[in-house]
Amino acid sequence: GWDEAAEAGLDALLTLPAAEFRMTGRRARLSARPPTRRLALEAAGTRLRAALPEGYSLAVLTGGADSPAEADEGSERDAGAEGGAPAPLLIRREAGRMAISGGAPDPLIGESLAAYARVAAPGAAVEADFVYGGAFDPAWRAAAMTAIAALARLEEGEAEIGAARARLEGRVETPLAIADIHRLFASGIGGARVAETRLAVSPARIAAGRALPPGRCAEEMTAIAAADPIRFAPGSAALEEGDQAVIRALSAALGRCEGGRIEIGGHTDSQGGEALNLALSAARAEAVLAALVGAGARLTLLSAKGYGEAQPIADNGTEEGRARNRRIEFRALEGDGE
Q: What is residue 301's DSSP assignment?
């Protein structure tokens, strides 16, 4: 992706009257010379950040609000320049990963931030790539830790800690979390930084939270059970320990049902007597009902019924087919909506 990143940097330079673009590995930096103004530089930086290939970070070095960019030939602003302004800290949160890059005072603090990220986001792979040195304000470390803590509460997102501004954006699981995360970020960045947050709930999460009529609810529950079947050993109505994950998923889907009732239908293979299979299928349906209630589902939404061997979906002449026929299905009871 280096050539693509270089081309994006050149395109950004063409939009500014005087500017500089540098890349070291996957770290890019865009800074400006007078008469370039801050707002123009920030706009170019926003476009450049979107154009960079995945895995590349960008530091945009600006001056005061809509003032000419402060850098000139005699004031190099590289991170690591003694007493100079450090590069902003950029932290990205993705599924199973947190990447930290940019300026840090020294390796000890850099390592401590990486260790804090592993604690704040357990299970995430933490990648750290710092440029050390420069003049950091006393509140910088607290601001960096706050950004990490806020990102750990997002599904995915990005935070940037600069000298005068701190930015957090990303997706959350529920709208109720937005205000809390904003307060956490705004109260912890420290110093004279202006806090900006852009948080939203993903469309998939919004759809997942919408209420379902009983017919749709039953279809979703049947699809869940088909993708992760509740398996029964021959002649048994006992749920296995591994079935708890699908029970939780079914209970969550049932929590979105609006009105009406859902029938849990138990089915068996054709082995054994018809009467025995009918009783066994009813026991299996009752076992699932009890497990759903134990997981928090409302008993008033549910009923259980056994169908025995009467409705096979696979060949009872094979073990694979018999295993598929030993199943649980869901349907909305008549008169309870679609």
A: G
* Cβ neighbours around 13 below 10 Å, total: 15
How far apart are the C-alpha atoms of 132 and 250, rounded to whole Å?
50
Using only C-alpha atoms, what is the Rg of the chain?
29
Q: How confident is the model at residue 92 (pLDDT cuts 50, 70, 90)?
A: very high
Q: Phi first, then psi: give them for residue 98, nearest 5 degrees.
A: -135, 125
Provide the CA 202 distance to its chain's centre, in angstroms: 9
Tens-place pLDDT, residues 55-85:
898 888 754 333 344 333 333 333 343 445 6
Stated length of the chain: 338
Spatial separation of the C-alpha atoms in residues 194 and 65, rounded to whole Å: 12
The strands making up 89-94's β-sheet, listed across from edge to edge, are: 125-132, 97-104, 89-94, 156-161, 165-172, 194-201
Distances (CA, A) of 53 to 6, 174, 224: 10, 29, 36
Residues 190, 146: Cα–Cα separation, whole Å: 9
SS3 200: strand
Please measure the distance between the N-terminal and C-terminal CA atoms of the chain and give it in whole angstroms: 50
Element (H, E) at 327: strand 327-332
CA atoms 127, 167, 179, 297: torsion sign:
negative
Q: Give the pairing type, strands 302-306 and 262-267.
A: parallel
CA distance 136 to 217: 55
CB atoms < 10 A from the CB of 124, how many?
18
Residue 270 sits at φ, ψ, to 5 deg, of: -95, 5
Q: Token digits for 23?
A: 């890349």
| CB neighbourhood size of 306 (10 A) | 21
Residue-wise pLDDT tens digits, 207-243: 555 677 888 888 888 888 888 888 777 788 888 777 8
